[in-house]
Amino acid sequence: MAILEVQNIHKSFGRTEVLKGISFSLEKGNVLSIIGSSGSGKTTLLRCINFLETADTGRITVDGDVIFDSDTQAKLSPREKRDKQLKIGLVFQQFNLFPQYNVLDNVTLAPRLRAKEREDYKKNKKQINAEIEEKAKALLEKMGLSDKLQNYPCELSGGQQQRVSIARAMALEPKILFFDEPTSALDPELTGEILKVIRELAEEHMTMVIVTHEMNFAKDVSDHIVFMDHGVIAEEGRAEDLFNNPQSERLKAFLNNYD
Amino acid sequence: MAQFFQQFPTVFAALNVGFLQTLKLFICTLLGALPLGLLISFGSMSKFKPLSLVTRLIVWVVRGTPLMIQLLIIFFFPGLVWGKPIWGGGESGRFLAATVAFIINYACYFSEIYRGGIQSIPVGQHEASQVLGLTKSQTFFRVVLLQVVKRIVPPMSNEIITLVKDTSLARIIALQEIIWAGQSFMKGSHGIAGQIWPLFFTGVYYLLFSGILTLLFNKLEKKLSYFKV
Ligand SMILES: Nc1ncnc2c1ncn2[C@@H]1O[C@H](COP(=O)(O)OP(=O)(O)O)[C@@H](O)[C@H]1O
Ligand SMILES: [Mg+2]
Predict the structure, then answer these.
(1) How far is the C-alpha of B188 from the C-alpha of B206, rounded, in Å?
(2) Exposed, middle or buried, B73 (CB in 10 Å: 0-12/13-18/19+)?
(3) Residue A42: in which H helix or E strand, if any?
(4) Which residues fall within 8 angstroms of residue A243, CB to CB, at 6 or more apart?
(5) What does the alpha-carbon distance between residue A117 and residue A119 come to, in Å, rounded to a whole number?
(6) How far is it between the farthest Cα atoms of chain A?
(7) A to B CB pairs, distance under 8 Å
(8) What is the dihedral of CA B71, B77, B79, B80, to 10 degrees?
(9) Which residues line ligand 1 (CB under 6 A)?
């Protein structure tokens, strides 16, 4: 069964319809890349799935649990919304690290606050926080940042900041990790280190949805590709098929721009 | 010169009494205006249009007119127009009226600084907090607040040092603060008359006071310099 199911998402800003009925699904452990020209609605789609925008209609299911349903959304308490939100994680184009916290604290802040809601928190406080810190350190080591734990975001390169933000998102153990153009804010020579990290996550079968303009990367790393155009999915399919044998004129034109 | 040294202890004692009143006005103004300013800034940022419009109108009027006029109006208006002097007589009445005028005036200035600080925090900070499952209040206290504080320390320190000097405006309603105390030696007080140096000497108090505050604010700025916003 699919771990992510997105059904019939519509979203308008004022009178502009930006998403015109988006549906797709994703298998556990797979990587899906979303490609498409600028303005086609990729960011809006990710923002709707991550609750940063509220879709006008549609339904989103993660691991069998409905996290969004436009019919019942208004009835959810903030607490319920947060619980659903935490099934998925989002990595921003602009990193959005918290500037006043060092690298380690950026990663542990949310898990620590989250842990306070546990029933056994008072009793096992020390142990819980120690575990959170251990896990954060392990994640940061994986990101190659073990020697930066005490540094502040302003002391890091863009690539290092983005790796911290990936660790920060993963610290909450989301079932699916979303990336919105994770390399677009980086100098070209720094994009490689981020793509490498994402590749490693893919090898470990992290379920991911990646909006990207790096076509070669998308082709390599993805199991499935969705091509968006003017608020609809114009074409989708297995990565090799879609790149080697595009069907629609729009996708052909789009891919030609990258050769 | 001999006369100066003879008069100095008397003048010094009288100026200290006046300065105490200045200091009291300064502290009461801050205690009232710092939180009231935050309320006003929330009002001016409210999504409820009538509230934000009225708040901004009040702020505009208060910031656009001299504090001295506001002092005079607040002090005299109740007695002259309603025939009801609400402030009570004597020094304590004048102090109360002055404090109210200063709190209103400074709260409006502070509210604009707060508003600028809060609105300057990138929306990405709120969005990152949200996707990490932070509540609204966790986002404000754990993520936004310190960034706002860092941003507003320089303009707030300017405003607070201006307040040190602005307290002298309370002289206009005869509050017995340090300028009033210095001036009293021109007409005659404590057996000393026709002396202007005590009035000039009050400047030393203002210099020292604002100097100390400047040092404290610089320290605070340094303390917050470990991160960039
Ligand atoms: N908050 C918003 N208000 C109004 N229009 C928006 C807003 N966000 C995005 N749009 C519009 O929606 C369209 C799709 O934007 P976006 O989802 O950012 O596309 P992409 O990420 O594919 O470049 C654009 O035309 C954009 O101007
Ligand atoms: Mg985008």
Answers:
(1) 23
(2) middle
(3) helix A42-49
(4) A215, A219, A225, A255
(5) 6
(6) 62
(7) 61
(8) 130
(9) A 13, 16, 18, 36, 38-44
Instruction: With CA atoms as reference, report the closest residue to A148 among A164, A165, A133.
Output: A164
- Per-residue buried b or exposed e for A177-187, using 16+ beta carbons within 10 Å of the residue's own CB: bbbbbbbeebe
Predicted structure pTM score: 0.89
Residue of chain A minimizing CA distance to B149: A100
d(CA B203, CA B197): 10
Q: Is the pLDDT of residue A259 over 70?
A: no
Contact criterion met (CB < 8 Å) for A52 and B130? yes
Q: Each residue of B122-134: pLDDT tens digit? A: 999 999 999 999 9
Torsion of Cα atoms, A168 then A174 then A180 then A182, to 10°: 40
pLDDT digits (tens, 9 = 90+) for B84-101: 888 888 899 999 999 999
Residue with the smallest CA separation from ligand 1 atom 16 is: A41
Pocket test for ligand 1, best of A11, A43, A92 (most atoms within 8 A of CB): A43
- Dist. CA B111–CA B44, nearest whole Å: 8
Burial (CB < 10 A; 0-12, 13-18, 19+), residue B212, is exposed
Nearest CA-CA partner of B209 in B159, B170, B165, B177: B165
Parallel/antiparallel/unpaired status of strands A224-229 and A31-35: parallel
- Within 13 Å, how many C-alpha atoms sit on residue B65's CB side? 16
Burial of B200 (0-12, 13-18, 19+ CB in 10 A): exposed
The pLDDT tens digits of the residues spanning A165-191 come to 999 999 999 999 999 999 999 999 999
d(CA B156, CA B163) in angstroms, rounded, equals 10
- pLDDT tens-place string over residues A53-93: 999 999 999 999 999 999 988 889 999 999 999 999 999 99
CB contacts, 8 Å: A110 with chain B:
132-134
Gap from B226 CA to chain A (nearest CA, Å): 8
Per-residue pLDDT at A152 = 97
A-chain CB neighbours of B229 within 8 Å are 99-100
β-pairing, A176-180 with A208-211? parallel
Q: What is the pLDDT of residues A217-234, one digit of tens each?
A: 999 999 999 999 999 999
Q: A39 alpha carbon to ligand 1 midpoint, in Å?
A: 6
DSSP strands (E only) in A72-164: 88-91
